[in-house]
Write a structure and sequence with these properties.
Oligomer: single chain
Radius of gyration: 15 Å
Largest sheet: 12 strands, parallel
Order of helices and strands: EEEEEEEEEEEEEEEEEEE
Helix content: under 10%
Number of helices: 0
Distance between the termini: 38 Å
Number of strands: 19
Shape: globular
Length: 189
């Protein structure tokens, strides 16, 4: 089941830009397996993706979830989503060549998660820079439920505040390799 408000699969040159708001009205959804909550923006197997300058708010589940995408740019995005549990801000899932910059994320779960929950593509070549992150779980989480490698990650110049569990959380699982990761110039309160 692939419930999403905005969904694209196998597309090239995808852009969501502008000063608008994508409001998931997350309080309207029940939390449960029989009634899966939709993701606000899910992109699968897309190339040359740009999400810029929008407000993503009140998601019932993840805010932005690219899966097996290449050349993804998420810039100047604001995410305000704390109305449901497991409401991650951005989940980068088996993607390559990803830049998340100048974002402000307040999420009910991980602000930014790097993962590979499906076989077929590693998560690699990811830059996270100049972001302000706040979370009920981890601000930056690497590796939850990873079934492929996660490598070549750089997170820098970020402010992490009002985070209940972890500023940066790295979890290995299923025998995958996580390597070549640099976390620098992080200010955590």
């Amino acid at each position: 089941l692939n419930r999403s408000l905005v969904y694209a699969e196998g597309c090239q040159h995808v852009a969501i830009t502008g000063q608008g708001t994508i409001d998931g009205q997350g309080k309207s959804f029940r939390n449960g397996e029989k009634d899966p909550r939709p993701v606000l923006i899910r992109l699968r197997d897309c190339r040359d993706v740009r999400i810029q300058d929008v407000l993503v708010k009140d998601g019932a589940s993840f805010g932005i979830h690219p899966i097996h995408c290449q050349r993804v740019r998420i810039e100047g995005v604001r995410i305000e989503s704390r109305v449901q549990p497991n409401s991650d801000g951005i989940d980068i899932d088996g993607c390559q060549d990803v830049f998340v910059t100048n974002c402000n994320i307040h999420s009910g779960d991980d602000s930014i998660a790097l993962k590979t929950i499906e076989r077929g593509a590693p998560c690699r070549d990811v830059v996270i820079a100049n972001c302000v992150l706040s979370s009920d779980c981890a601000a930056i989480r690497v590796g939850p439920d990873a079934v492929e490698n996660i490598e070549r990650v750089c997170a820098t110049n970020c402010v992490i505040r009002d985070t209940k569990l972890n500023g940066v959380k790295i979890q290995t699982s299923f025998g995958v390799v996580m390597r070549d990761m640099v976390f620098s110039n992080m200010v955590m309160d």
